[in-house]
Give the backbone structure.
Amino acid sequence: MTAPAPPGVFSRPYRARTLAVSSTFVLVAFAGLALSTVMPIAVQDLDGLGLYSLAFGGFLTTGIVGTVLAGGWSDRRGPAPALCAGLALFSGGALVSGLAESIVPFLLGRYVQGLGGGAVTVALYVVVGRAYPSALRPRMFSLITACWIVPSMVGPPIAGAVAQRLSWHWVFHGIAVLGLLSLALLAGPLGRLRPAGDEDGEKPGGLRAMPALAVALGAGLLQYAGSQSGLHRLVAVAAGLVLLVVWLRPLLPARTLRAGRGIPSLVLLRGVSAGVYFTVETYIPLMLVNERQWSPGAAGMSLTGAALTWFAASWLQGHPRLPWPRERVVLAGALIHAAGAAVTLSGALRAMPAVTVAVGLLVAGFGMGLLLPGVGVLTLEHSPVDEQGRNSASLQLSDSLSSVLLVGLCGALFNAAHVSAGQDATAFAAVFGTALAVAAAAVPIARRIAVPHTEEKKNHATV
């Protein structure tokens, strides 16, 4: 007799939670792709092109606070409260931005949305760690990536059509409604997940709240500096760097900034790689619309293609009989991601067809599909149960902070080289060239992600 097949993520014990988690990731995917598609129209309509990077970077900056608070909250109360609070903030922020008639309230809404978005992502990672055995986690991460497929195909075209026929405001209003619907679906399936730590311990976020606020403020100052000049820029940069140097270390695993082997390098690799991809993804629609005169819908389709190649790679790495060690798959992803960044840089040259930029994003998406799920699986695999929330928060914090810093740096470079719409090839080359340099730096970090044997034995003993 053959052994019975192991249960899958949609088998009876896991079906309700899997549907709840996947529906929330569909919302996150649709929101990210739809809002990236209409962002160039929104900031120009509000006369805020010089603050374009803040529309994305501000979202990530406040996401740092949501990430850290939700990590501690999930460890002590279970992931459901943090997830519901995050969705409420995410929807409220989208509504505020959608109602905005000037750039300041628009950015304020994005900041509120980022606070909720950071909490949602961490809480969902904790759900995967708590609700699924280790054998099912690679498949669950593949499913999470699959949740981007339909949004990647329908999100940019729908958002572009709504912005052209009605207004970009309605795209934000639609995201707010979808967020509230997802909140209603989550309460039952996830409410039964219990906390791993002491429910009578610290309040959500605990002693990490102050460092999180300080780091978010530091990142925000660096973002602000990218849109300023002269003395204001120097003061903002100095203050931001001081806050990051003093307060960042308590929020990350020891030796993260030195790429220590194991979880520290996993956290650093997640941040560096995600920062590059997010920066490139942020500026590609702007380049195709302003520089190459593509429609918003057509420019958004480059995001669709990248989401599909990301899913293909994620499905490949989630195969139960993967013939290679997961660490080697992650390294391959880092190499492919850097190659995609190089192709994207070449597409910024006027002599190259505009589609070259989109092809580069397709290649980078495939690399990220190998890299990011593997980083998530290895981090949960090597984390004690009562530290899964903290380490998941560290992953997301590294992701958000690296993206904020790189988007801010590239925003400053873009503003310094900016001439006018249609004359910014040099500005975009500066952005994509910086992204390529950082992507190349991720490769040696990917060689250090294997967990030392002594640390692995310690973690298993803790479990």
